Amino acid sequence: MSQPIKLLMLTHNYPRFSGDYAGVFLSLLAKKLHRFNIEPIILAPHAPELKEYEEMDGVKVYRFRYAEDEKEIIAYQGNMHKLVLGSVSGIFQFRQFLKAFENNALEIIEKEKIDIIAGHWLVPAGLVMKSLSKKTKFPMILSSHGTDIRLMRKYFSVLYRYLKNFCLTLKTWTVVSSFLQKGILEMDKRLLSVLEILPMPHDETIFYKDDTIERDANLLVAVTRFTDQKRVDKLVQAFALVSKKNDLLKLQIYGSGQLQPEIESLIDKLGLNNKISIHAPLPQAELRNIYNKTSIVILNSFEEGFGLALSESMLCQAAVIGTDSGGITDIIEHEKTGLLVPLDNPEKLAEAILRLSEDSELRQKLSNAGHIFATETYQSEPLAKRYAEIVKDALA
């Protein structure tokens, strides 16, 4: 066998420890690439208490320092754009962050004898890659997972004007849904030649139907974040309507985020403390058990880039409800693999919850079809193989 291709993967989101959910799909992809004679080398931001270099599951992981421990807060929080744009000091710190990212990338390129560069998320990785492209001649591929494109369309159209010439030089730009592809082409139709829809691989050794776990017909689950995009307030309002008609149902919400206090206050105001419980994010193996126990998983977010909670729960054969928005429509085919509801419509969401919870035959039909679809669509091996082919084609 020839020497493996050295692939430098730039990302601001990568698991920090065993069981961490941050960028876990990138970790799975990196592990799988070894099977296709590609050696991935990760460069991600440092954070307090992390090592600057370690090997995780056989993958080299470098973490760059960009400030003192207590000031390394740009990554892993889910609110990078708010931190950066919230103050002049935030902008200054982001410039330091990007410079440290670039300098460390150049050091690793030399040290590891890199062959090709792959970035994940247009911001910040794309910004770093643009700068690297002026100093190196490596072929480059980019992957977008949702947040970067949604924010760019909403806030940063000027950013694309800065990046467009670089984006047109990419060998391939993968996106996880047709929604993201459409959003990019609305900005620049010339990018059609480099765009490819490629979902991130799912770990079927973790997410699978477990027949030893009994489903609770009265349990609803939402795996989310407490941000405006996720519309958790609309879910709580919908459940208030549901609870008036079916007193047996209960809702468990797993997540964290800045809006959690507001959601907790809303739950208390609606008198739902004994019906809705909030839990911290779980490691994937524990999340699998929740997906196998619940009857319905709900994700009612706005312009979701993909909708990982839905696809993971479908692999565990849970029935799903999602909003008719963003990449969710790539995952759910209405009335066939799940139910779609209008965005920001608690009444329609409540109707869908009641319908699915009270019609066991429909619930079984949709969960079976969803399981088949997810198993055929999100298997890690063929998706990792296709990504490997993209890497090799870029080098050809």
Name the beta content range: 15-25%
Strand line-up in the sheet with most strands? 3-4-2-1-5-6-7-8
- Biggest beta sheet attributes: 8 strands, mixed
Query: What general outline do the C-alpha atoms trace?
Result: globular
For the termini, the CA-CA separation is 17 Å
In the predicted model, the low-confidence regions spanning at least 5 consecutive residues are none
Mean pLDDT: 93
Q: Helices and strands, in N-to-C order?
A: EHEEEHHEHEHHEHEEHEHEHEHEHEHHH
Number of strands: 14
Rg (C-alpha, Å): 21 Å
Helix content, binned percent: 40-55%
Structural class: alpha/beta
Helix-strand blueprint:
Blueprint: E1 5-10, H1 24-33, E2 38-45, E3 53-56, E4 59-64, H2 80-85, H3 88-112, E5 116-120, H4 122-133, E6 140-144, H5 147-154, H6 157-167, E7 172-175, H7 178-187, E8 195-197, E9 216-223, H8 232-245, E10 250-254, H9 260-269, E11 276-279, H10 284-293, E12 294-299, H11 308-315, E13 319-323, H12 328-331, E14 339-341, H13 346-358, H14 360-377, H15 380-395
Parallel strand pairs: 1-2, 1-5, 2-4, 5-6, 6-7, 7-8, 9-10, 9-12, 10-11, 12-13, 13-14
Antiparallel strand pairs: 3-4
Helix pairs in contact: 1-15, 3-4, 8-13, 11-14
